[in-house]
């Protein structure tokens, strides 16, 4: 049996999976997880940027994925997604620059907010429109 990184005391009792279930072997699913996380990030904010996609040339691993984003100002960035958050690793698609020491952001919203005034405005307007629609729905 392989050693695992988790403390069994931290696992909730009500997870409801048996010893012989598919969940027993987490190892194979980790590699997909960061890519899935990156895809979710892209889907969340794609409407508010010019272009955004998970890099197909930079390697995804269990602990890292790379996302290319082009802001509405036409600036291009390569973002690194890790457990620590997101950060800019290059000012071009599909590249990393080890000399860049950019800060990590907990969320893609915070990172884009710092990079792109047009993103901030577009995101804010979309939020206002959604709130207006909810208000109309609740009044009818």
Automatic annotation (TrEMBL):
Cellular compartments per GO CC: cytoplasm
Molecular functions (GO terms): kinase regulator activity; protein kinase A binding
Organism: Casuarius casuarius (Southern cassowary)
GO process terms (BP): regulation of canonical Wnt signaling pathway
InterPro entries per UniProt: GSKIP (IPR037395), GSKIP_dom (IPR007967), GSKIP_dom_sf (IPR023231)
Annotated ranges, domain GSKIP: 34-134
SUPFAM superfamilies tied to this protein: Hypothetical protein c14orf129, hspc210
Protein name: GSKIP protein
Chain intervals for the UniProt region annotation (Disordered): 1-22
One Pfam family named in its UniProt record: GSKIP_dom
The family this protein is said to belong to: Belongs to the GSKIP family.
Domain of life (superkingdom): Eukaryota
């Amino acid at each position: 049996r392989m050693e695992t990184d988790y403390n069994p005391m931290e696992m909730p009792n009500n997870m409801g999976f048996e010893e012989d279930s598919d969940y027993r072997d987490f190892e194979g699913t980790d590699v997909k997880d960061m890519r899935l996380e990156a895809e979710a990030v892209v889907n969340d904010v794609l409407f508010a940027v010019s272009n955004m996609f998970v890099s197909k040339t930079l390697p995804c691993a269990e602990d890292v994925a790379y996302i290319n984003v082009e802001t509405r100002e036409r600036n291009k960035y390569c973002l690194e997604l890790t457990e620590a958050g997101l950060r800019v690793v290059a000012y071009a698609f599909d590249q990393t620059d080890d000399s860049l020491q950019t800060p990590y952001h907990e969320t893609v919203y915070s990172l884009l907010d710092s990079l792109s005034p047009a993103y901030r405005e577009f995101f804010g307007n979309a939020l206002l429109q959604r709130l207006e629609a909810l208000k109309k729905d609740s009044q009818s």
